Each structure stands twice: as structure tokens, then as C-alpha cells.
Amino acid sequence: MMLGVIRRRVANGGSSASVRTILRKSMQTVEPSVSACRVSGREILFRPRGLGHVRKFSHVILPGCSINLKVIAGCRPMRDSISNTQRAINVRIWSRLFSSESGDLVDAVVPFMGESITDGTLAKFLKNPGDTVVVDEPIAQIETDKVTIDVASPESGVIKELVAKEGDTVEPGFKLAIISKSGEGVAHVAPSEKIPEKAAPKPSPAEKIKEEKPKPKVETAPVLEKSKAPSPPPPKRTATEPQLPPKDRERRVPMTRLRKRVATRLKDSQNTFAMLTTFNEVDMTNLMKLRSDYKDAFVEKHGVKLGLMSGFVKAAVSGLQNQPIINAVIDGDDIIYRDYVDISIAVGTPKGLVVPVIRNADKMNFADIEKEINTLAKKANDGSISIDEMAGGSFTISNGGVYGSLLSTPIINPPQSAILGMHSIVSRPMVVGGNVVPRPMMYIALTYDHRLIDGREAVFFLRRIKDVVEDPRRLLLDI
To answer: Under 8 Å CB-to-CB from 273, ≥6 apart: which residues?
Structure first.
């Protein structure tokens, strides 16, 4: 209404002095205080008392500075008059920067763990709240069905909070910890520090007086008479009652995901495959002599020791090429023949059995195989082996002889169709050229899926292993 009067006065040619008089009278009825204030980002909306419209004030928030307010209005005289009134209003606003605005907090989440792995178990935290971390430093370990994965810190800073708990099942993208890049607001607690136990409350003076009062004497004669009565003998155990060991001599430890996965796969292998095992024995004289004659020259040229495992891998490659059905696999109603040879090597680690794969073993020589075996075995033992290095494989070799096994029947590693078992070398009397002489002998075993592989192919394959190991020159002549 007042704005309409001013417009009409200006349109009729009224002087600026009369307009200012009207504005001065109208503003005297307006209280300069602010009744409602809402902060939104960098703008503040004020609702002055006595005005029917909401005015929008833009400002820059600076600690300890007053605010220069500007009113958006429809005419210049109105803006000028209200701006003169606003000079009398000093609104002092202090700002405080929050960590969420400055990007100080960073979340450490579970990384991608592999194509076939959807979740894992948080095994343990390597860092505690208050510990300093650098970029890519491991802060936690996650156990999966195949391998243990480290969770690296995304930024350098200080661990502010551990969100998850050890033993939780986590998925990729799950938040584990919160890291403060600046370290502000984090309580630095040494791992060895313990919170002192609360001292027991001191007794009040009234309680002390009660304790000091002499206790009345109690006659003990009846008690002595009762104690003289003979106690009944303990009940005798019957012959059929089992005597269980005390519970304090037992320990219950939850299975790791790797151990549960191995147990599940081996049981599935027994339930799925029609497993049959055939045996043979190998005279290790010539292969051991080959290694003894050339071990120094082999190390000098290739930088790795010449072992017996490379000889068996080359023999297995020759056997798979001669009997392709051993390298095949059943898929529904079809048989898949593989034109490559990827040999898995079973490696026992403190955390469980892992089976890294030697890719394209048919294209490798003795030195390449020994280098690859050493690299994979080292990664398997220290837990740094990746899932890709264990995926696939068309045939498996398990060397139980390194632990002293004399004879065993290995279980097929699904989805493969056969597995070769090596055993310890034992000097036994053998008939050679009509004479009984001691020979270093090894039992070998082939467990195969009888649904796909017949006994004929299995025996021929094992016989090929025996021929190549006993006379490695066959590899050179391809006979």
C-alpha cells in the first residue's frame, strides 16, 4: 500500500523531499529487528517485522565482521531509504568451518575383490584409532574364499574411527574406517594405554562405625557336632558313563573362509566325480643324476635352482599332449577339449591350501618353470598371491613327498578331471639287469574322473610320466 502511494507521488511530479518524508514516517513504524533467519549456504533470508514481504539479503560471512545488507526492491527510492535504515542494524555472525565442507574426512572402503568373489570376512584391523597412516598403507585384511586381501588407506592422515568390526561379512564398497587428513578431532591413544579402572568408593563414616562395632559371638558347638558326622561317599560312575575331558582344556576357533571354501570344494568333488585312482612307481636315478650334474651351471645361468618339480611338469605336459582326454572337462552334456596346458601346483600354506597356476606350461623350458614355481610359492606363503594367479588350470600336480608322504589318493580339484600325486623318494631294493640293487623310488598316483576318462587312458598317461622321468632324453627326441 505504501509503495503504491510513493509511486503515485513520483508519477505526479512530487519532490524527492516529500517522498523522503513519507518514507521516514513509514519506517518509524517498522521495527528494525529480525524475527526469522535461515542460513542456506552463502545466503540469509530475513523476514523483518512489520513488512509483508520476505527480503533476500546477500552477504559474505567473515569471522568478526558486520554484514552489509542489500534489499531487493522494485524502486530506487525505496532501496536507498531502507539501506539508510539498515546502517543502524549491526548483525554480527561468526562462521565455523566444518570438516565435511573442507573435505577433511575420507572413507576407507572395501575394494573390488575379483569376478567370482562377492563378499569376504573382515579378518583384522592393522591400525587402531589415532594411528597415523600414509597413502596405500594397509589398514585391514579381508579373508575371501581364495585369498586374503589388504585394504589400503586412500589418503594420508590419522585413523579417526573404525566403523566395522572384526568378523563382519563385508562387500565391495562397504565402509570400514574414517580417516582424517588433518588429524583434527582425533583422540591419539597409544595401543599400550589402558583406561584405569574406577577406584572403589570409599565407605562413609557411618559405615565405618558399623564395621567397628563388635560382632555378637556365635555358638559353634552345634556346628562342630555336625561336622563330625561322616560325609556320604561320592556316587560311583557306572561302566557305561563316558568320562569327558574338562572344557577348559578345549579351544573353539572359527573356520577361516579359505578353510571353509576348501572343505566345500573337496566335498563337492567327492559328490560329483566318479573318482578312481591308479598307481605306478618311478625310478628317480636318472633325473636326480641330471640335477646333480648340471645344478651349478643351471644356477649360474638362470639364477634359480634346478629342482625335481620342473621335470614332473614337463612330463605331465608330454602326457597331456599324448592323452588329450586327461586335459578335457565335462560341461553338461558336452566335453570341452583344451588346446592349452595350464598346470596348477598345490601349495600348502599356514592359512590353507592354495593352487596357483603355471600358464602355458607347454611353451616353457625347465628354467622358466622353476622361476614361475618359486615366484608363485613365495606369493602363496606370504599371502600376496592374487586371485587371477589361481584362477583356471586344466591339470593339477600335488607334491606330498615334501612332507614325507609315502602314498596317497589325491582328490580332484574341480572343475578339472584329473590330478597327479607325487610322494617321497625312498631307496628300495629293485631288480635291474637280473641283479638286486638299491634304487631311489617314488610312488605316483593319478586320480581321475571315471565318467570321462577310462582306465586305458589313465594308465597310458601315468606310464608316460614314468617313461619321461626315468629317461629325460625322451623330451629332446620327442619319443
So the answer is: 412, 414, 417, 449, 450, 451
Residue 439: phi, psi to the nearest 5? -135, 145
pLDDT digits (tens, 9 = 90+) for 350-390: 777 889 999 999 999 999 999 999 999 898 888 788 888 88
DSSP output for 31-54: --SEEEEEEETTEEEEEETT-SS-
Closest CA to 341 of 418, 269, 411: 418
C-alpha cell at 268: 563337492
- Residues whose CB falls within 8 Å of the CB of residue 306, separated by 6 or more in sequence, listed in order: 291, 294, 295, 298, 299, 366, 370
Report H helices in 273-382. 285-302, 309-322, 366-382
All three cell numbers of 423, joined, read 610322494
Question: What is the average pLDDT value for the chain, to the nearest integer?
Answer: 76
450 is catalytic: yes
Which residue in the list 107, 362, 450, 467 is annotated as catalytic? Answer: 450
- 393: region left, alpha or beta (phi > 0 left; psi from -120 to 50 alpha): left
Among candidate residues 80, 136, 293, 454, the one labeled active-site is 454
> DSSP characters for 232-281?
PPPPPPPTTS--PPPGGG----PPPHHHHHHHHHHHHHHHH--EEEEEEE
Contact predicate 243/237, CB 8 Å: yes
Contact of 329 with 415, CB cutoff 8 Å: yes
Judged against a pLDDT cut of 80, whether residue 61 lies above it is answered with no
Torsion of CA 143, 148, 153, 154, to 10 degrees: -90
Q: Where are the beta strands (DSSP E) in 49-173?
A: 55-58, 105-109, 120-125, 132-133, 138-143, 148-152, 157-162, 169-170
**Contacts of the segment 88-96: beta carbons below 8 A, 24+ positions apart:** 88/32, 89/32, 89/34, 90/66, 91/34, 91/66, 91/67, 92/64, 92/65, 92/66, 92/67, 93/44, 93/61, 93/67, 94/63, 94/64, 95/61, 95/62, 95/63
Residue 38, judged by CB atoms within 10 A of its CB (0-12, 13-18, 19+), counts as exposed
Residues linked to residue 358 through DSSP beta bridges, in sequence order: 343
* Cis amide linkage into residue 415, ω under 30° from 0: yes
**Cβ contact 57:39 at 8 Å:** no
284 in helix, strand or coil?
coil
- What does the DSSP 8-state code read for residue 148? E
pLDDT in tens, 424-445: 999 999 999 899 999 999 999 9
Rounded Cα distance between 326 and 418, Å, is 6
